[in-house]
Write a structure and sequence with these properties.
Blueprint lengths: L1 E6 L4 E2 L5 E2 L6 H12 L3 E7 L12 E5 L2 H14 L4 E4 L6 E9 L5 E3 L12 E7 L3 H8 L4 E7 L5 H15 L3 E5 L7 E4 L5 E4 L2 H13 L2
Parallel strand pairs: 1-4, 1-6, 4-5, 6-10, 10-11
Antiparallel strand pairs: 2-3, 7-8, 7-9, 11-12, 12-13
Length: about 220
């Protein structure tokens, strides 16, 4: 089966030299892509330029992305051209991008800063953060017949609430499954394969095996 895997972080530009990003390394997505290749699938890996994972990708095609908008555009194109039967959206997409940036004017008001490199001479600055588009919510429109898997990384709440949020993600985004992990979930990974089916995995390989079995039955 043709599969698309996204991995690693996006970044959003404050100016031409500074970025807003996250701690994602791209390791889990790269490991999943390699696992799928070893199982005989044709994989296209989209990996964030900021990934620090040192694993060598085995995917037949590997593309780097930078911003959320860049990843979104590439997925939109692949929806028309790839013929993918499964999409595993494991990338850690930034929730926010920068809007306007201001400094305090002498009269106490705000003065917008427009510069390719914002200088510290401006002193304390105020930066607007705007929500980025939710790529997961658009995947069904781009890949209407594919098996779609989203990820949910949670730090707050408890395991039961985290699983409930994973179920909500599946329902709201018309995906087929959601992998959930993070401090709120605890050790391992949870897999919501439908609104009624949930499984827990202590190891990544066991999770990958379960995901591969899901697409093998499509």
């Amino acid at each position: 089966m043709k599969c698309i895997v996204t991995a690693g972080p996006t970044f959003e530009e404050l100016d031409e030299v500074r970025r807003l990003t996250n701690f994602s390394t791209g390791t889990l997505g790269t490991e999943l892509a390699n696992f799928l290749v070893e199982r005989g699938h044709v994989v296209e890996l989209l990996r964030g330029e900021g990934s620090t994972c040192c694993l060598e990708p085995k995917a037949q095609r590997v593309h780097a992305f930078t911003t959320t908008a860049g990843l979104r555009k590439r997925l939109q194109v692949l929806g028309r051209t790839s013929g993918a039967g499964a999409v595993f959206h494991a990338a850690a997409v930034s929730d926010f991008t920068f809007g306007k940036v201001w400094e305090r004017a002498l009269d106490g008001g705000l003065k917008e800063i427009r510069s390719p490199k914002i200088s510290t001479r401006h002193g304390t600055i105020l930066a607007e953060l705007k929500p980025t588009p939710k790529i997961l919510a658009e995947l069904r429109g781009w890949f209407p017949n594919a098996f779609l898997v989203g990820w949910k990384y949670e730090l707050e709440a408890d395991r039961a609430q985290t699983i409930k949020r994973a179920c909500q993600q599946v329902a709201e985004n018309q995906t087929d499954a959601c992998v959930v992990n993070g401090r709120a979930y605890g050790q391992g990974f949870g897999l919501v394969a439908s609104l009624k089916q949930f499984r827990d995995f202590t190891e990544r390989k066991l999770l990958f095996d379960a995901l591969e079995k899901l697409i093998s039955h499509v």
